């Protein structure tokens, strides 16, 4: 159940418990009243206060009626007690479920906060690393990179690895590779297919060992 459903259920059960408690007190009172009447009549008979045969017969019938009435009232009283016990048990269970739901909500909130804090730390670390990486980079090259990054889904430069552009995953032909191998290390090389800046590494497969790092 959702928390609102639990709260609504608990409210309904509390009302039912209150109503049954009132009903039980009334049943207890009714049983006690009839028992008192029975004990009073029985005491009068045992003490010999009733001597008339007719009155004794009438009182005997009345005692039988009172016994049946007490039995009926006790059955009603027992039924109300059972209902009250079941309803109180259901209310206790809803209360336990509400506590468990609150604990789950709290645990999720803590996990969310921890995750958010971790993501913020990762972002801050990435910003610091990027700032260090672009320090001293020519403004024109940085502007070109940012423009390409916006156009290419966040990837403005790609490594040239094993004669292949990591950006578009397409291989370069022999002519392009030869041209790149002869180019100065500070020259900006672009992929002919995706137009991204190519970063030459020791794994580029140029055989010249030239690097350009962003």
In short:
By secondary structure, this protein is of the alpha+beta class.
Stretches with pLDDT under 50, minimum 5 residues: 208-214
State the secondary-structure class: alpha+beta
Element string (H = helix, E = strand): HHHEEHEE
- How helix-rich are the residues, as a percent range? 55-70%
Number of strands: 4
**So how many helices?**
4
Quick one: overall form?
Answer: rod-shaped
Mean of pLDDT: 88
What does this structure look like?
By secondary structure, the chain is an alpha+beta fold. 69% of the residues lie in helices and 6% in strands. It is built from 4 helices and 4 strands, in the order H-H-H-E-E-H-E-E. The chain has helices at residues 3-46, 53-134, 139-151, 174-182; strands at 157-161, 164-165, 189-190, 197-200. A 4-stranded mixed β-sheet has the order 2-1-4-3. A hairpin with a 2-residue loop joins strand 1 and strand 2. The radius of gyration is 45 Å and the shape is rod-shaped. The two termini are 54 Å apart. The model is unreliable at 208-214 (pLDDT under 50).
Keywords:
alpha+beta, single chain, disordered C terminus, 4-stranded mixed β-sheet, 214 residues, 4 helices
What's the SSE blueprint?
Elements: H1 3-46, H2 53-134, H3 139-151, E1 157-161, E2 164-165, H4 174-182, E3 189-190, E4 197-200
Helix pairs in contact: 1-2
């Amino acid at each position: 159940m959702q928390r609102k459903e639990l709260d609504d259920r608990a409210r309904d059960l509390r009302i039912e418990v209150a109503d049954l408690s009132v009903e039980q007190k009334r049943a207890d009172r009714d049983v006690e009243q009839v028992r008192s009447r029975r004990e009073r009549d029985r005491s009068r008979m045992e003490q010999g206060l009733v001597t008339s045969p007719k009155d004794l017969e009438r009182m005997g019938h009345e005692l039988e009626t009172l016994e049946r009435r007490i039995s009926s009232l006790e059955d009603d009283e027992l039924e109300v007690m059972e209902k009250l016990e079941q309803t109180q048990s259901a209310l206790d269970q809803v209360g336990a479920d509400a506590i468990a739901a609150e604990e789950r909500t709290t645990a999720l909130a803590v996990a969310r906060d921890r995750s958010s804090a971790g993501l913020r730390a990762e972002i801050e670390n990435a910003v610091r690393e990027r700032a260090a990486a672009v320090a001293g980079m020519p403004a024109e090259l940085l502007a070109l990179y940012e423009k390409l990054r916006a156009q290419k889904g966040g990837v403005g430069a790609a490594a040239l690895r094993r004669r292949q552009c990591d950006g578009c995953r397409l291989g370069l032909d022999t002519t392009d590779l030869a041209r790149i191998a002869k180019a100065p290390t500070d020259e900006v090389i672009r992929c002919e297919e995706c137009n991204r800046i190519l970063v030459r590494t020791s794994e580029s497969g140029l055989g010249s060992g030239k690097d350009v790092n962003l």
